[in-house]
Amino acid sequence: MNAHLTTALDLAARGVPVLPLRAGKVPFGNCRACRDNACGGRPNMKAPGPCACPRPCHAWAAATTDPATLTGPAWSSCWKQAAAVAYHPGGVGLTIVDLDHAEAVAWARRTLPATRTVATTRGEHWIYRGVMPSVNAVRGGVDIKSTMVYARWLGPGTGTMTALPDTVRTLVVKEPSPVRPVTVAVPTGGGECRHRTPAYLERGIAMAEQRITAATSGVHATVYRTFLAVLSAHGWCGCLTDAHAARLFVAAQTKGESPRHCTDAWSNARTALGM
Fold it and tell me: How many Å apart are CA 136 and CA 132, to the nearest integer?
């Protein structure tokens, strides 16, 4: 059996969606039946499903864990020509910080929490548990690979995998940053800050992220109402930080909101509350 196919089957058995790559680390081309992405494999769709075509014609959307598809006749010629195996990190709940050169690796070692690392041709992949939007060139030599992308399989790596940190999530916020510092005064009248229990604030932010992510219509209105609710509940004592706001901005941008819309919704919510 082809060595790349053997690797792919092993990964698929562990729940990792995989596909073959040809020379140059690129997927195989579209088939005739899916010309112009007729099957719905476009990566810019809001809610794309896996490509229904039997060939791996849409990169990450064609990645599969189905051994019958991997070993079927429609894929056989692809494996014969394959130069590598790729996988969809977001499909297995992972995010890769792709560090393309030594300077980027040095930056990660200074800045990011330690996690599992995999050596690449020129740098390293740092792999975290958790999913986020994929963005290229978040800084020099650094790409984020998670949802709607594929990454070349280079082995299991070394080290203990850790949870996706806010320091990685906030990398997708482009300059000028849509996140505005939350600097509001504690209201006079006293009362102990209830947010000094970290779980209270964390639960509120997580629920807000979920509310935005679950929106199927009226996304802009949902984002504004969610920002309003978060600021109303958590914005008066000064415990709300830029990192918390950035998480909400990332959730909104994942649903298609622009940085400008996020900034406007945040500002309007603060104005409505008199902050």
Answer: 13
